[in-house]
Amino acid sequence: MSHWRVTSSFLLARLRPRLPQTVRPLSTMNECRRNITNITANNSILCATSISKKHLFLDKRSMSDRSEDSKDVATGQAITNPMEPTAEDRLAIEERQNKAFAFFTQTLQIYGVEELIFCFNGGKDCTVLLDLLMRYLRQENISSGDIPMLYIKSGDSFPEIDEFVERCVRNYRVQLVQYEGTLKEALTHMSADLPRIRAVFVGSRNTDPYCQHLAPMQPTDNDWPPMMRLNPLLEWSYHDVWHYIHLNSVPYCSLYDRGYTSIGNRSNTVPNPQLRRTDAECVCGANSDAVCSCVSGGYRPAWELQDATMERAGRLPRK
What we know:
Elements: E1 2-6, E2 11-15, H1 27-34, E3 36-39, E4 44-47, E5 57-60, H2 66-74, H3 87-110, E6 116-119, H4 124-139, E7 149-153, H5 159-172, E8 175-180, H6 183-193, E9 199-201, E10 217-219, E11 228-230, H7 238-247
Parallel strand pairs: 6-7, 6-9, 7-8, 9-11
Antiparallel strand pairs: 1-2, 2-4, 3-4, 5-8, 10-11
Helix pairs in contact: 2-5, 3-7, 4-7
GO molecular function: ATP binding; FMN adenylyltransferase activity
Keywords: ATP-binding, FAD, Flavoprotein, FMN, Nucleotide-binding, Nucleotidyltransferase, Transferase
Protein name: FAD synthase
């Protein structure tokens, strides 16, 4: 496996021999590989090039096939759905998927694949976006590594989210572009480091804060880096998201099994109180497995939330 980092003063590539390199790197990475000049004592490779990437962290890894690893990516167990979608739900999700694929086709009529990136935060909406986009790319015989994944890492993030992002990188064979800071800061740095990127896929839905009036293709505000924001999931509901995940056996972050419905950072997110189990609900059979969660104060999984307007009830107010 190869591991690329671009730091404040040089382009760094770490070689990890336990996995073969299979993902095609960015054009700047190709240039770097042609200019390798020195191998240091810690097995790092320094690239002597005039390109200076001050903010960018690139993590490029070879990954196993999605169908073989789908159980491992979530929580190690098969994904089950106690709230089975109806036939009407299935038709609605099929229509949602077809519209998303049509949106991707329209996008590629406007932008080259090398001009695109998708934003991923490990949440359920972005997970659906990732799976839809990767399925579409396979359908069109486009490499999953051609559209990178943008992840904004926080020192306050849940370890489960960071781990899930890492597993998605391996699982879907995507190239990770990682920054720290806010989304605006990340896009600013990315625009400097990867000026070819002109549009970013985002997993926003119109029920999210400040997203009520977004258009499917929405330019960023004037004080943001100039870029087109691509929103293929705007019309999806909370339950659409979970129906898609269950109907397609899409791996998801394990926090959703524990009552989290909208995940931010550790300091501002708790399990949704709407999903707290009562004593009457908490009845596990003697043969129940370890994920029963029927303990005092336990929570039902995220997809059992009945009132979608309470999706963010587990988000704490800003201080």
